[in-house]
Every structure is written in C-alpha cells, then in structure tokens.
C-alpha cells in the first residue's frame, strides 16, 4: 500500500456493501419467501422488501439523473448512516430472524446468509480496527 492508495480490505468492503450485499440478500430473501411458510415467509418478505428499497435508494437517484432535491437527500439519509453499514444490517435482521421461527425451509439459505453477514462484518471490523 502506498500513499493515497486504499488497502485491498477497504476496497473489498466498499464493493461488498455497495454493490453485492443487498442484491445477494434479496436473492436469499426471495428463496426464503418462496420456500417457507407462515411467519418465516413474512419475515423473508420483509427482508426482501428492505433489500429492494435499499437498492432503489442507492441506485435509483443516479439512474434517474436526480442529483438535487428531496429524493436524493432521502436516499442519502437511508444509505449513509453508520458509514453505509446501517442499511445492510437492518435489511438482514428479518432474514436472520426467519431462521428461528416456525415454517422455515431450506436451511442453506440461513447458512449462506450467515456466511455473507460474517464476511461483511469481518471486513468492516478489520477496516475499522486495523
């Protein structure tokens, strides 16, 4: 690493939290919603809705060429708290909870989600403290 060149861990974290985490979470939540029953399905649907709203907030204003006004400000308020970590963590909570309630199906969804969440939190912790 040289002067003004970010470390690979920082670049991996920014890529994961900006471009990969919410779409992968949406895919896992859609799998849970389609396979589960009862409360687990509703929690999977809530996680899917939060992931889709997060992707719309992150990619929508630039896609629509909106850079001023209330919509980009609202999108920034949704995507930037806690260094961009709040949105992925909030969207993960319902999917994490859906693994512990009745009606759960496809245990691999839980394992894939835990691995994805562990990678995100591990990279975040590494970049925060090292």
From TrEMBL:
This is Uncharacterized protein. It comes from the Bacteria. Keywords: Membrane, Transmembrane, Transmembrane helix. The chain crosses the membrane at residues 12-30, 42-61, 81-101, 108-127.
């Amino acid at each position: 690493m040289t002067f003004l060149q970010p470390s690979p861990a920082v670049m991996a974290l920014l890529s994961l939290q900006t471009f990969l985490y919410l779409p992968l979470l949406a895919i896992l939540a859609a799998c849970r919603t389609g396979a589960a029953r009862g409360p687990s399905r509703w929690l999977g649907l809530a996680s899917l809705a939060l992931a889709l709203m997060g992707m719309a907030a992150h990619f929508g204003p630039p896609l629509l060429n909106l850079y001023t006004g209330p919509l980009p400000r609202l999108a920034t308020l949704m995507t930037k708290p806690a260094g961009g970590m709040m949105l992925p963590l909030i969207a993960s909570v319902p999917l994490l909870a859906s693994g512990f309630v009745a009606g759960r199906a496809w245990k691999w969804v839980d394992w894939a989600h835990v691995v994805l969440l562990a990678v995100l939190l591990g990279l975040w912790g590494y970049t925060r403290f090292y």
